Amino acid sequence: MKKGWLLISACSLVGMGPVNALAQASDQAAMPTAGAAQQGGEVGATSEGDIVVTGIRASLASAVSIKRNASAIVDSISAEDIGDFPDANLAESLQRITGVQITRSRGEGSQASIRGLDPAFNQVNMNGRTVPSASSGNRSFDFTILSSDLVNGIDVYKSPTADLTEGGLAGSINVRSLRGQDVRETRFVIDAEGIYEQNADKFGPHVSGLFATRLFDDRVGLVIGGDYSKRKLQVYRYEAFGLEPATENARAPAQFQDYNRDGDNNDSFLINHAANYGVDYGDRTRKTGLVSLSFDVTPTFTIWGEGLYSEFRNDTALALNSFRFTNNSINNSVRNSTIDDNGIVTLLDMDGVDNRNNSRGTNQRDQLQSFAAGGDIKTDTAKIHFEGSYGKSVSKITALSLEVIGRASAAQNLATDPDGPANLTIMRGYDPLNASNFNALGVNGLYNSPTRDTVWEAKVDGTWNVERGFLRSLSSGLYYQNRTRAFTQVVLSVNAEQLAPLAGVPYSAGVEGGSFNAAQFMTAFNYPDMLRNYDGASTFPTQFLNSDLSKLYDKVPLDTLLSRFGTQTDLASTYSVKEKSMAAYVRADFADANERFRGNVGVRYINTVSASSGFSADLDTVSIDLAGSRTIVGRTAPVTVKNDYQYVLPSLNASFSVSDNFLVRFAAARVLSRPSLSNLAPAISINANVRTISGGNPLLKPYTSDQLDLSLEYYLSGGGLISVAGFYKDLKNFVVSSTGTRTINLTTVQGNVTTPTAFTTFQPANGGKSKVKGFEVSYQQPFTFLPSPFDGFGTILNYTYVSADDLPYAEGGPLLPLPGVSKNNYNIVLYYEKGPFSIRGAYNYRDKFVVDPASFFGDGQFTNAFRQLDLTTSLKVTENIQVHAEALNLLGESQVNVNRFGINRGFEDYGRRFTAGVRFQL
């Protein structure tokens, strides 16, 4: 509804053979000719004969027409669909497409999965170009940085063609913005709304605007757009890090505990490493600007240029009420315990429990820049498309805290409600609201730690009409990409001995290995609605104290800390990966005389060369600073590793029209996805807190898959559709974790005590195989056959089933589930549109799935089934003014994670969100 002014082409993928399919989709996306729009759901015509598509039904009919005329298996969603759904961003919109699931970050859709595979297996493009993403941690794109208000449509390619950029083993997603060459007439729209967050009980603004016109005798097309939003965030959360294997007499430093109280210290158990109850609060701000310009040099030659800038700022703090039962200050302090048949300590009552109540502030700045220029030559017999582009994404994170610790007498009970947060009880007179019970260990964390992802691309595509019998056209092209991802871990660390004299407080060398009393730097938090959507039996505090950096900065400004102590670069975790890829393809499009049987066959050849640079770590120089559980590597040495590989990727797409309304499609292809750029880094991450050593592998090969698709599609009148599709993927070269155990001499900074400590090592390696298979069922129907006023109703129903073989994630280890695979997924959408009024409800369900089959301690992390109900409505007051309202997560669902024993790993309650606004258009 907010995007109802946009003009949607019903044939943005029609034929799809000429020129690069992604480039062609954006080339034909927004403002169709009359002939193009006649293939979709048209509403009315302008005086120039153009079709203006504005209603829900028209846009849905347009998406159906795109699917019907495409020569591959493609599903699309138009800007009208995005506007009509109550979607916060592009990922929220994508989940409405059959076979697409999403993951969420703080209640917002952040990444998309296609047919159950991890988002890292997607190739995400914008107007046919790769979009860098420094914040995602891999090649996948984080959709939170890009505003949906400036997007014209999204196409999801489930089967590839030879001209599509490789990398979409799961599928390819192309985001289409409105471009200068799409413009047919002058348009202007501005939308202003307020966003209300239930948990925060605050409003945030959202304003967007877009201007499109043609100039200089219609030879120049111009688009200018902008978007600004600020979300007032407040997310209640419970966090756990899994069940840590704990041997009673092997703690470091020596903290012997007789967990089962049998009189010896020789037993081993699984203990909940930490129970964190917290609130994530603050602002998330997004600014986006877009410019697109085209110039018709001649009737057959057009040049164009465009630019996109987006900035995402996350200014939040995570206030934690944390209890670490695996870090105790009193030996043999267990007062009571219960141990189940799996060796899990379900009830643990202890003294001297680590009560680590830090408020870690996060200031994150993500910037995305994308610029492109190119041209199109179109004659009666040929089409040539060429372009060059540059994209850069930079993410800088500062995450500092004043590390404080109290020593509590407390009990945690995992058996009260295994699926919910641990039941926590404060014992024996410990007062968690007495600020003098906390001691400060120092200030630590990341400071302006940068990640950069840069992409240079160039391509040229040509298509020649052949029209010789069965062969209709031939296409070929060249593609080049130069991509660099670099990460530098920059930390600020100031210990208590350094900080105390600056803060004007006494330093105590014998308390917690060196600390000062934190009473004057603590702030009280009171959240009576903490985890408001949790309805289980567990209880936990809703009032707690937290360290407050702002109070410390009143005495010791951050600039003083930086000037006095400076920052340090953790070289062991710092890396740069440079990758150059070249590709060439040929493609032939074919059809019989009456075009009942048509399709394309082609092959794509790729050559990739990479150079991964980093620093090898001397593990004999590892130490842990208990002030923040920070791991320090004393010595490193530079290292660079090179790798290269070549692949041939054939593809076939064919369709047969059984009748005018019944279409059968078949596709076969070999596809690949390259490993995460961070996995290619010759760097390691050492975590002395959970005793793990994780490293990269620059010699990893791409994941590959041989896949088959079969689709049956029956098209109903008025833009309706019934479809059934089956898919099969045979995955090879899946990256598994080569694991082992290594004992290193770990030195504790506080006291300079060295203890031989066993670490679990992880390094990615190729070798895993899995078969992914499933089917999709979709039904879309406007109920125009009903009598008025019921003819305004319509529905969209779809269901996806995905099954994947388990695979070994560790060499010689057990078979474990494939991450991201939800067996059952469905959408139920009901809408009503009549005259100036429309309303739509959308219910989405995603089955449980694996986040990490192993995680820190081998017990894994799994996300429970999630369901969300959203509602949107609008009323057109005048021809130019529309009011609208949206409600997200009406059911108040929370995201819940568990381990393989069914014990909770996380509970995220982000509440309901409501928006209301007005849109003005000319």
Automatic annotation (TrEMBL):
In what residue span(s) does the TonB-dependent receptor-like beta-barrel domain sit? 422-890
Ranges for the TonB-dependent receptor plug domain? 67-171
Q: Which InterPro entries match?
A: Beta-barrel_TonB, Beta-barrel_TonB_sf, Plug_dom, Plug_dom_sf, TonB-dep_rcpt-like, TonB_rcpt_bac
Where, subcellularly, is it found? Cell outer membrane
Q: Which residues form the signal peptide?
A: 1-21
Q: How does it sit in the membrane?
A: Multi-pass membrane protein
Question: One of this protein's Pfam families, by short name?
Answer: TonB_dep_Rec_b-barrel
What CDD domains has UniProt attached to this entry?
Answer: ligand_gated_channel (cd01347)
Keywords of this protein's UniProt record, alphabetized? Cell outer membrane, Membrane, Receptor, Signal, TonB box, Transmembrane, Transmembrane beta strand, Transport
Coiled-coil boundaries: none
Q: Which domain of life is it from?
A: Bacteria
The text of the family note is: Belongs to the TonB-dependent receptor family.
User: What name is this protein filed under?
Assistant: TonB-dependent receptor
